[in-house]
Amino acid sequence: DTEVTQTPKHLVMGMTNKKSLKCEQHMGHRAMYWYKQKAKKPPELMFVYSYEKLSINESVPSRFSPECPNSSLLNLHLHALQPEDSALYLCASSLALQGEQYFGPGTRLTVT
Amino acid sequence: QKEVEQNSGPLSVPEGAIASLNCTYSDRGSQSFFWYRQYSGKSPELIMSIYSNGDKEDGRFTAQLNKASQYVSLLIRDSQPSDSATYLCAVPVGSSNTGKLIFGQGTTLQVKP
C-alpha cells in the first residue's frame, strides 16, 4: 500500500483567514514533504521532515507554517496568504530521505 | 546549479507505437532516478525508479540509465490513449541525504487513437 491521504481536496480562503492542510500516511515512512505546484510547472519543494523534525525549509514565507505532530501526520498551517499562493499543495512521503517519494492527491487552494 | 532537462513536448505518437521520453541531468553524483506520471489536475504518480546502468522493465514501461552520458529515458511500448499525461523526470540532489528532488519541466505525451 503506497497511499498518502490529504484533506481537504479543495480549499477557498480569504487573505485574512487561517486554515490548515492535513496529510497522513500509514506506510511507516519517516520522511514527509510539502510541495507547491503551479499550473504547467513541476512540483516545488517547500519543507522536508525527517523523523518528525524539520530538516529543510526552502526559504518559504512565514505565512506557511508546517507541523509534524507524529510520524504519520503532517500539517501545513496557512495564515494571511496572498492570491499568488493559489496552487496545488502536495504532500509526499518516503521510507527514508533519498528514497522513492509517494505523493498524495493534493489540496487545490484558491486564495481570494 | 544542478539541473534536470526534458523536452516539454508535446510528444505525439499514434496508439500502439513506442513513446520515448528523455531526460538529462547535470550532477554526476546522482545515484537514483525517478519517473512520475501526472494526469491533468492530478498529483504525480511514481511509475519507475532506476538505480543502475542499463534497462529496467515493468510491464509496458522500460527505464534506461546511462550514467556516463548522464541520460535517463522512459520507453512506453504499445502506447494507449490512457498514457496521455505529463511525465516528470526527478533526480535527488547529488549524493547528499537531504530528500531534495530536482524535477525536470516534464514532457507532455499525447497518444492519438
Instruction: Please describe the biggest sheet of chain A, giving its number of strands, its sense, and whether it closes into a barrel.
Output: 7 strands, mixed
Q: By helix and strand content of chain B, what is the structural category?
A: mainly beta
Q: Average pLDDT across residues of chain A?
A: 96
Shape of chain A: globular
State the oligomer: heterodimer
- CA gyration radius of chain A, whole angstroms: 13 Å
Query: Which term fits the overall shape of chain B?
Result: globular
Rounded Rg of chain B: 14 Å
* H and E string of chain B: EEEEEEEEEEE
Largest contact between protein chains? A-B, 23 and 22 residues
How many angstroms separate the termini of chain A?
A: 37 Å
How would you explain this protein's 3D organization?
The complex is a heterodimer of chains A (112) and B (113). Chain A is mostly beta strands. Helix content of chain A is 0%, strand content 57%. In chain A, β9 and β10 form a beta hairpin. Chain A is globular. The mean pLDDT of chain A is 96. By secondary structure, chain B is mainly beta. In chain B, strands 2, 4, 5, 9, 10 and 11 form a 6-stranded mixed beta sheet that branches. Chain B has a 5-stranded antiparallel beta sheet with strand order 1-3-8-7-6, with no helix packed on it. Chain B is globular, with a radius of gyration of 14 Å. The mean pLDDT of chain B is 94. At the A-B interface, β5, β9 and β10 of A face β5 and β9 of B.
